[in-house]
Predict the 3D structure of the following.
Amino acid sequence: MRVIAHLFARLHRDQRGSVLLFVIGFLPVAIGAAAFVIDVANGAERYESFAQTLKYLEDRRLLDKMPEAWHTVLTGFVLPLRHYEQGAQLLLTNANRFAYGTTLTQAMGFAGFDRIGNAQQLSLIGLALAGGAALAGRVVELQARFNF
């Protein structure tokens, strides 16, 4: 521990050391910002891919050809997960409301909006199963277009 403290003190005294300390301090922030940008870009691609999948299923009427057992699994087990996702979004929003500091509130806010996006995708699967794949595909296209 004393070695690290001595190293930082020595770096701080030297002008080049101050620049190095600034870079070391700023590097985690830059990595976090890059990770956020990549995550947002992947989220938009995920919505577009989901819209293409729904369009593919609708064009070939594959949901109508699905076995009854799989239809039961989707409607009985997968679709109710949208309520779980909505509940998780509400919990994260409430935690975001009472959290202290940007580090916590920002992470909880983004995680909450990711959860509501998951709930929307599960609801769109339900619409497609009910025969509204054209409507579900249009909703996904609008969400991807307006980034929500």
Remarks:
- Residues 2-146 form a domain with the Ribonucleotide Reductase, subunit A fold (CATH 1.10.620.20).
- The chain has one domain: 2-146.
- The helical segments are 2-13, 15-60, 68-78, 81-98, 102-129, 133-146.
- The chain has six helices and no strands.
